[in-house]
Sequence to fold (622 residues):
Amino acid sequence: MTSVPKCPQIPGRSHSCQGWMPGPRHVRIATSPRLILVVAAWVIGTGVSRAAWDTPENGNPILPGYFADPSIFFDSASSQYLVYATTDGNWISYSSEPTVWSTTDFVHWKSSFVSLPSSWPTSPLWAPSIIKHPTNGRYYLIYADNGGTFIASASSPLGPWSNATSGTTTSTAPLYASGSMWGGGDGIDAQFFLDGNTVYMTFGGGGHFGIARLAFATNGLASIDNSDARMTDGTTHKYKSLDGIQNALEGSCMFKNGSTYFLTFSNNACQNYNVQYAYASSPVGPFTSADGQIVARDNAKGILGPGHHSVLQVGSTWYICYHRQHYQYVDVKRQICMNQITINGNSISTGVQTQEGIGSGTGALEALVAAARAKDETDLAFGKTVLASSESDYKGGTGNWESFDAIPHFYAARYAVDHNNGTLWSPSTLPGNLIVDLGANYFVGRCETTFEYVLRTYRYKIDYLSASEAANLAQAQASTAWHPYADRSANTQKLSPVVDSLSTTARYLRLTVLAADIPTAADEINTILQTDYADRIGVFEFKVFAPIVTIPAHRDSVFNGGFGFGSLGWTFNTWGGTATGSVVNDEYKIQIDSIGQHNSSIQLVQNGIILERGKSYEVKFD
Fold:
């Protein structure tokens, strides 16, 4: 019995699976009430010009997990791009400890904990911003808290961070206390702006933005500079209210192109968040509001609530880095995305939100991603057939005054092997397992498991079978001969992805998810419960890689003669003939369609073998 999976429900739109999405079409085969076999066949749907939200290898989101309010920064000293963000997943008052992600190519990311000053509050912290000071060479980091805006400094963009004011307690440490500028809303979303050698910050919410100049002492400590005559507002702290801003809520970001100053900001909220902008000839205004939304909700593309952001220039190309809401809608599960923007005079391109992001197209970062993907290791699990014990539903419900339909099997097994940070597999009951069929025996070196939350502890196991031990997934599922690959049933590590290494030959890999540290307090999970389940354990990606093997440059024997490393070290030539060759179950199989003019036209060769005069060598074939 087969059935076509239900299309995602997009509010306000009719639903039909005909011509739906240019990504994968799948057939779900019911093998038993608790087993779900998914066979993937990538096809192109009709009548759709942009990537669907669950198309494999989408460029957006750029990070796995739930993060918001991104501050993107290029560190020329280490040639790294860094994204500091609010760590999301519960509710803003329960935001987890801050994290930072770093990359050199926007394909391979590393998450790191942020070591913040002991005088700072531990929760909640949100809306970071980072710069490198143009003259003293130190890095500065801002975070907002209910009590104030805090600033820290470090000699490295990854910290450790020390408080950059003279205060030594939580109450005296802030750069400024909330309410000390103009009152309500002045402590929201402070962001750095560097204009030449001058450092400013923009800040504020509720439609009221301000700008202040920062001063830095010889010892590196920071303060608000009250000596700038343009800062005509405020008493304790001098700032300038930014006039002329319309349709604004929070999340201000200032940057300069040529002689024009742009102020971008978020409007509306939650699933209807969007980014708009204004421009001026001076950083203190007055500003002229522009028409249009740079990024906005886009039901046709499955994009909800793109908002709080930062802007990055790479060469002559500009990018917006922003968060958007989980799809289908689950509040406080926001994810980081990037798209290119175009600036022409006083105008910024609008409606740039896409699922492809910087994973396609032309531009500085697009070229970086393409180059990284071209030389990337092969993920043996990508797009392969999988068998899951169960798939969790999307509960549906009413979130922020809008109803969302329930979707059965929404967190599908295939999403664990699709290279898409916007999708995940989640079993409906625990323990839950996922079996990946690699299609043949491969020499496996490591598995990388990316779980739903970076800062939770997950407990799991990985097992394997070879091709000789099971002929298909059904036999693999029923087998009692599974071999242990990794046992993290007592895991205490809070980090994702988790890497498990073991060199072995396997056709089937089984990931069994056992448990995780899940919040249970009502205040923490009530927001999620509006539209979904709060006790779900999800897996963004389960990747399988061959061992990293170095072929000896000079050797006197055949390398990889048993093909345990696939075709590594071998070259298949067709000099006029027609043939194909590949490794199947540790054998190199050649299909010859035409031998060509000579018996030597088709060759499987290995270079680099050095034979010495006077020595004996033996050649053996099984």
